[in-house]
Specification:
Elements: H1 38-45, H2 51-69, H3 81-108, H4 135-163, H5 177-202, H6 205-210, H7 231-237, H8 251-268, E1 274-277, E2 280-284, H9 288-296, H10 308-312, H11 320-336
Antiparallel strand pairs: 1-2
Helix pairs in contact: 2-8, 3-4, 3-8, 4-8, 5-8
């Protein structure tokens, strides 16, 4: 439930107030917590926020991709333009269909108005920091030209490796159905850990200036913003899929993993907490935790699936107290230099 936004909520932030914010402090995911909360953890894993917004939709995308949209694995034994182009066009169409569809729904047709929209600001226009001075066009360019290309490159590497027997850990779901499903549940949690560390790295000043600044042009975010990155950031961001070199996996896991990173990034940057039907959440989209990062930059480098920010002291739970603690910590670091 939302509540009235007070001056204390934005104290010291020098930013316009939110159009909508969830109840604060932000509640963490009850999976990796101490003391353990096994009942709460199971409820979360089977909830609308996780099972029905992450595992099932992206599991279905991956299954459809493998069953109907992927070139035969035997064709992938040698690098040929035809099957690589087929994979690129498939990924591009999936991305445009889903992410572009979300943009049309929320921003072009305004079907949900401002209901559950975090920022009251509009997407940028006539701004020199964007390609062609337009935020949406800038985001589309980086997402499709760089993002989809490198996403496809990672998939090509895995399909070629599987076809040539270079990855012996090909998991047959018929022989290991439980492990097969558990991997789907585990991938977003691994991504959460990986994302925290590479995101902190990308905020290192040299890398930020060269690469990450492209993504952070987006203070008010839309669906196209999530995967809008410099090629170097795409390369680093998508590298979490390389974990499948070490563990038994199936191509469906590769597709799930990369589609979650690419399409899921678009969903998590819509700027809306959820897509609603008759005022009720149908699928959860953007976490307020990451919206705070886009506004304040120096907090919430990870996400709430694994509490890395709490562990390393960079968590912002939406309260004025959290903002003061992070601001004071930054001042202390500056004073120590």
């Amino acid at each position: 439930m939302s509540r009235a936004i007070t001056k204390d909520d934005i104290a010291g932030q020098d930013k316009p107030p939110w159009n909508y914010q969830p109840s604060i402090p932000i509640e963490g995911v009850p999976v990796f917590v101490w003391p353990p909360r096994p009942v709460a953890a199971i409820k979360y894993l089977l909830s609308r926020a996780y099972l029905f917004s992450v595992v099932i939709p992206f599991g279905l995308f991956a299954l459809i991709t493998w069953a109907y949209l992927q070139p035969a694995i035997t064709r992938c034994a040698t690098f040929e333009f035809s099957w690589i182009a087929q994979m690129y066009l498939r990924n591009l169409m999936l991305f445009v269909l889903i992410v572009g569809g979300l943009h049309l729904y929320f921003f072009a047709f305004k079907r949900q108005g401002k209901q559950l929209k975090f920022s009251g600001q509009t997407l940028g226009r006539d701004d020199r920091k964007y390609f062609t001075r337009d935020q949406v066009r800038d985001n589309v360019f980086w997402s499709c030209v760089s993002g989809v290309t490198l996403w496809t490159a990672y998939e090509v590497f895995f399909m070629w490796s599987y076809a040539n027997g270079l990855l012996p850990f090909y998991l047959d779901w018929r022989e290991h159905p439980v492990w097969f499903v558990l991997i789907l549940f585990a991938i977003p949690f691994w991504d959460s850990v990986h994302f925290y560390f590479i995101h902190r790295l990308l905020h290192w000043k040299p890398l930020y200036r060269v690469a990450h600044a492209v993504h952070h042009r987006n203070v008010s975010t839309g669906p196209w913003s999530g995967f809008s990155m410099h090629p170097l950031e795409h390369l680093i961001y998508l590298s979490n899929v390389l974990i499948h070199i070490l563990f038994a996996s199936h191509p469906i896991h590769i597709f799930f993993h990369l589609q979650w990173n690419a399409i899921g990034a678009g969903m998590s940057h819509t700027g809306y907490e959820s897509l609603t039907v008759r005022g009720k959440p149908l699928i959860y989209l953007s976490p307020f935790h990451h919206q705070l990062h886009h506004r304040l930059y120096n907090c919430n480098y990870g996400n709430s699936l694994v509490p890395m920010d709490k562990l390393f002291g960079s968590d912002h739970d939406g309260t004025a107290e959290a903002w003061s603690a992070i601001r004071n910590g930054r001042r202390a670091k500056v004073a120590a230099v």
